[in-house]
Amino acid sequence: IVADLLAAGLRGATVTNVAVHWPRTVADLGCREFADRLSGRRISAIRRRAKFIVFDFAPDLNLLVHLRMSGRLLLVAGGGKRAAHQHVILGLDDGRELRFHDPRKFGRMYLVADTTDRLGRLGPEPLARAFTARRLAEGLRGRQRALKPLLLDQSFLAGLGNIYVDEALWDARLHPCRTA
Question: Is residue 79 pLDDT above 90, yes or no?
């Protein structure tokens, strides 16, 4: 839902400036390089892969945002005072700003040319049409691991977190420690 809402409001927008107020939010790059590489780039698409929101910048750059436990992306009118916990602010060509708000400071942003390194090892998407009960059963077959940790393993099934797994197992009346 977050990616779809952002895509509707941001597709085609150009980043004009970047302010990083908590450097550890930006993974793998220094703040200056992060800002320099994003400035002047146009957002061609926004999508989701597992727990990442993926901003595609034409033609060869991607911003991966992992919200973790408390992160949020806020699209606001520009020029307002920065609120506490707004750690990265992307200024846009229409005057708006995309602000990364994260009180617990767990969220991360990765700027990459190719998403394969970060996203390539992820398992199938549980909401994809191709993912069926039969495919899940085939993946579970022969495994000796407990259900809950297996379902939380992002290389087995992408995007599930603790709450979703707990609720799914409860609805299925399966104990989390039951062997797959």
Answer: no
